[in-house]
Amino acid sequence: MSTKEKIQEEVDVLEQESNLNEIVLFNDDVNTFDFVIDSLIEVCEHTLEQAEQCTMLVHYKGKCTVKTGEYKDLEPRCTKLLSRGLSAEII
Fold this sequence. Notes:
InterPro entries: ClpS_core, Ribosomal_bL12_C/ClpS-like. This is ATP-dependent Clp protease adaptor protein ClpS. Keywords: Hydrolase, Protease. GO terms for molecular function: peptidase activity. The chain is an alpha+beta fold. The chain has a single domain, classed as CATH 3.30.1390.10. The protein has three helices and three strands, in the order βααβαβ. α1 crosses α2 (48-61).
């Protein structure tokens, strides 16, 4: 008769608490698709494809999260989007 021994391992999991925020971009009737796409590429460092997808989501859904990160990184980016006449906020 063979016996199988079960070993239970304890694993410590280190959870890093991070306070991630998001820049949410809102739809408006003023800015063109191309302007919004260019702004997302320049300010949020999106690829062309990311910027196009976010722009479409903003247009059809009314808003879209365009950047996630720590507040200190997002604040200047959001300010740049606002200075370009886009509607955005950090949540």
